[in-house]
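Notes from hallway chat w/ T.B., transcribed later so I don't forget. T.B. wanted the structure written out for a chain they're using in a teaching module, and asked if we could keep both sequence and structure tokens in one place. Agreed to drop them here.
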Amino acid sequence: MEAMEAILSRRSIRQYTSQKVSDHLVRELLEAAMSAPSANNEQPWHFVILDDRKIMSEIPKFHPYSSMLREAPLAILVCVDLSLGSEGFLVQDGSAATENILIAAHARGLGAVWLGVYPLKERINGMRRLLGIPDRILPLALISMGYPAEKISRANRYQASRVHTNRW
């Protein structure tokens, strides 16, 4: 899939088939994530791959919008290391990696949805407790994914009224 087509046609997918996502494909997604831009090229990200049904079924107990994880074959938790990176840019760095995963997943025929973790303390602390994440690591975003069992049509989100040139 061409890059612009992947960007413009990507949608949040919350229903998946039971087909497993291959380790090779997971590695491709992580390569895409780690190719994201980061401030001063610090690359402060860490990723937790989740495919254990028991672990994934615990997440909806503290993340109210994650019920699809009970059926999803895979999730990736995007984290940033608070001891790395340029001050104030860690969230942007992790968000760029998250978006790269979403676009790459779509381009490879997967469906995915971004489930926000940061800045909500109950979600951050829930992920830390569940996965044994050290204090210096900030859980930022959780991506639920698998082969889509739903199709959501492309949306035209361009709004010329939101574009300003040289001045407001």
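Follow-up for T.B.: The chain has one domain: 17-151. Might be a good example for the class.
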